[in-house]
Amino acid sequence: MAYVYKPHCKCPGMQTKKCSCGASWSYMVNVGIDPQTGRRKQKKKGGFNSKSDAETAASIMVAELSQGTYIEEKNISFEKFAVEWLIGYQGTGKVKISTVRLRQHEISRLMPYFSKLKMRDITKKRYQDALHDLKASGYADNTIDGVHRTGRMIFKRAVELEVIKNDPTEYSIVPKIQKTVVKLEQEVEVPKYMEGGELKRFLRTAEESGLDGDYAIFLTLAYTGLRAGELCALKWRDIDFTKHTISITKTYYNPKNNIKEYQLLPPKTKTSKRTIDVDEIVISELEKLRAEQKTVKMRYRKSYHDHDFVFVKTDEENAGYPEYIKQIENRMARLLKISGLNPKLTPHSLRHTHTSLLAAHGDVSLETIMARLGHKDDDTTKSVYLHVTKPKKKEASHKFGELMRSL
């Protein structure tokens, strides 16, 4: 049953359309019995400009009640629901800590727009305006994409839990700046990497001027294409000195760069878990490193962090703890400066260098390189590969032309 009325009207005949005071219309609908009190529950809503508008809204609610599709939206703020969602998201056990941290960061981008608003009051326009404002504030496309991805997950879950009826993120458009042809042509799409001669110079510098362990670290990165996190997580049991292989089964995580508060996580993707062949020069260097490490272990046997890591700290306070990514970045920057190479290169650049040199060889397919790097599909690796193999493709085209002319 629905009842339409004007709660604040003081005019004679207040339930008619002849009212002159401008009061809005409201409706009240019986929505069932409260199981705790046994009393009738009623839903009220006002602010309608006309009686017919209030009657239409009331009839929709009555229809939803009769069809069993009525949802009573909850009185919860975005801030509170987002916190609850993040706890549930982490509790699934299917996401890595690094991903949870990323979602938390992306939620913080939405807080200035929605934190104190009720979930039910966030409209499609309000959400779209927030995305536009993020773009106007100078955030990169990838950042806004991430924020929107998290926003979609939150509101979709709210609909599933019947906190809200409609998802305000549905049909939202992530604003992007349309790039001109000139700008696209000027963009350098191929990431930075070293040429063969540069890599040789860099490794020679690491061997001659590197700090303890530098040469073994950068030799391994260059010859395997490992991610820095995969290298830091390596344990001696992952290395087969007989078969000359390395198994990658985990990655290192330490966002605060606290040596003793590291975590080992599953690989980045399913294809990241792999076993690769390595050159004898790497195996030989790792054998030397293992012998040196045994000496350090004996020296600090009472305090040594003996967890089988390959690349470790050797000072008394931190002996045995794995090297961390930031430290490797700093050491590489030092070696780049000494060798006079591009200071913008990073440990990840060695991964691109590995790709480029394999591609330049000519006999190694893109699929083989992707498998070695632990990629199922990666645009960056493809761009390096295609850039390096472009001259060979031109050569093939030229040879085909010669063949046709000779017929």
Can you describe what's shown?
This protein is mostly helical and 407 residues long. It has three domains: 2-67, no CATH class; 78-175, Orthogonal Bundle (DNA polymerase, domain 1); 196-391, Intergrase catalytic core (hpI Integrase, Chain A), CATH 1.10.443. Helix content is 50%, strand content 9%. The protein is built from 14 helices and eight strands. The chain has helices spanning 51-67, 78-91, 97-114, 124-136, 141-160, 181-186, 196-209, 214-224, 228-232, 280-299, 325-339, 347-361, 366-373, 379-405; strands at 2-5, 25-33, 40-48, 239-240, 245-248, 251-253, 263-265, 274-277. The strands form three sheets. Strands 1-2-3 form a three-stranded antiparallel sheet, with helices on one face. Strand 2 (25-33) and strand 3 (40-48) form a beta hairpin. Helix 7 (196-209) packs across helix 11 and helix 8 runs antiparallel to helix 10 (280-299). The termini are far apart.
The main sheet comes to: 3 strands, antiparallel
- Which second-level CATH architecture of the largest domain applies? Orthogonal Bundle
The quaternary structure here is: single chain
Order of helices and strands: EEEHHHHHHHHHEEEEEHHHHH
Helix content: 40-55%
Task: Look up the CATH topology of the largest domain.
Answer: hpI Integrase, Chain A
Give the overall shape: elongated
CATH class of the largest domain: Mainly Alpha
Which residue ranges are poorly predicted, with pLDDT under 50 across at least 5 consecutive positions?
none
Strand order of the largest sheet: 1-2-3
